[in-house]
Amino acid sequence: MKTYKVAVIAGDGIGPEVIDEGVKVLNKIAELDQHFEFDFTYFPWGCEYYSEHGKMMAEDGIEKLKEFDAIYLGAVGFPGVPDHISLWDLLLIIRKEFDQYVNIRPVKLLEGAHCPLSDVKREDIDMLFIRENTEGEYSGAGDWLFKGKENEVVLQNGVFSRKGTERIIRYAFETAKKQGRSLTSISKANALNYSMVFWDQVFEEVSEEYPEVETASYLVDAAAMLMITDPKRFEVVVTSNLFGDILTDVGAALAGGIGLAAGANVNPERKYPSMFEPVHGSAPDIAGQGIGNPLASIWSASQMLDHFGYEQYGKLIIDAIEQLLIEGQTLTPDMKGSASTSEVGDRLIEMITTNSRTVNV
């Protein structure tokens, strides 16, 4: 039997609550298949750990995580710890140290999910965002000069390397080719006259190797508008770190809300573990009440299964989430329901168990 070692960083707020449901679902999938299992190891890192130790994770945290096949992250952030500390001292360190340069965020409107657009068909919202994840605007390069003085200056530099830009664009082309879908590049070359001109140039160069892939390119402001006015034109999308971060939240609003938004941080070469997480925050205002929405964390668990090569089980989970939304009986308060976090997970497991009879195990 194959054993997948998964490091669990449940994090802060509702993180532990929603991650528990994802773990339950993953264990159920393994039980149904019986050819693999999961070995979960929990690490207490996050803002509470920071308040006790002055750091978001242990000094040897990266070395410890290297031993795992995947990382399952809940949510990070809590009042009293500055957001740039909670982000940079845990999540971004992991992404960079493990070269998780591909961020994958599906924007897919499931049947039963609420969409704020009144004149759009469900099938019109089916995008796959591929976001550069280790450099660009989030490289962390810059300086803070003459702090506190009249001539105070801050410099925030975007870093776009040939290697980093080309590999994410090539990954996107390969994905679009495999799926038989179009690829859209999103940049801002009219205003960012170095980084985004370079991005567009690399996109054009790589596109010559993929004549079978239909392409388009938009400025980010136009893309934000078109995602709302004509979302069907976007299929596979590739963009930079900052633009991908912002636009996928727009996408989440179109596809049922942040409670359904999942993300994967992938090292395609598998030299290092990849990390899977819900996109939502830690929601400290409802932490401990057992009403956090676990669907995004469960969707990210399906991405983990996809990464391990079990796409049929990833689809089984997504189909169950859609069935749950259509049924509309077991939903958390953010989705206008009254169910608890664990009740949602339990109902999903019932659906997965029933539907598994149609999957080749």
TrEMBL record:
SUPFAM superfamilies (alphabetical): Isocitrate/Isopropylmalate dehydrogenase-like
Parts forming coiled coils: none
GO molecular function: D-malate dehydrogenase (decarboxylating) (NAD+) activity; magnesium ion binding; NAD binding
One Pfam assignment: Iso_dh
Keyword Amino-acid biosynthesis: no
Catalytic activity line of the entry: (R)-malate + NAD(+) = pyruvate + CO2 + NADH
EC number(s) on file: 1.1.1.83
Key word Mitochondrion present: no
Superkingdom of source: Bacteria
Keywords, comma-separated and alphabetical: Manganese, Metal-binding, NAD, Oxidoreductase
Names of the cofactor(s): Mn(2+); Mg(2+)
Span of domain Isopropylmalate dehydrogenase-like: 5-348
NCBIfam families associated with the record: PRK03437.1, TTC
Family stated for the protein in its record: Belongs to the isocitrate and isopropylmalate dehydrogenases family.
Protein name stated in the entry: D-malate dehydrogenase (decarboxylating)
Organism: Sporosarcina pasteurii (Bacillus pasteurii)
Gene: dmlA_1
